[in-house]
Prior knowledge:
- The chain is α+β, with helices and mostly antiparallel strands.
- It is 52% helix and 16% strand.
- The protein has one domain (12-181): Muramoyl-pentapeptide Carboxypeptidase, domain 2 (2-Layer Sandwich), CATH 3.30.1380.
- The model has no long low-confidence stretch (mean pLDDT 87).
Amino acid sequence: xxxxxxxxxxxxxxxxxxxxxxxxxxxxxxxxxxxxxxxxxxxxxxxxxxxxxxxxxxxxxxxxxxxxxxxxxxxxxxxxxxxxxxxxxxxxxxxxxxxxxxxxxxxxxxxxxxxxxxxxxxxxxxxxxxxxxxxxxxxxxxxxxxxxxxxxxxxxxxxxxxxxxxxxxxxxxxxxxxxxxxxx
Length: 184
């Protein structure tokens, strides 16, 4: 649908969403179910999610470059004028990842400065998929996927960033990710 004022259209492009649909959590649910039925507790799930995270990062970077929306234009213009590219440029790709592949998840930005970007996920579709299938107290393999996506996005954009998990869903009720810019 054409907008009356395209300069105020900050929605993700439909083509971008379509391009990333194969990487949506709903699409990998079948693969996860197969791995869990083959091996309860599925120790190899951490590797599966790490590889899935790398695929998602590659897909998000490619689609984000292909479909430059108004958000990308504004972030790039601001970065060019101010010289401040972190966290605005990578934040756009993180938002693409979450909105395109996990649209039902609830997440929020806790800190966004030129040194750190911290966000949390409070309602997570991946966790919902796993929580009843894995033994209580086992580490959540899905965090490897999220960390791999973040590391892949920063690496693909050429940002020297240290990524860490500050809180996890099972112990804290949310996952909280911290990205620290390590050099200028």
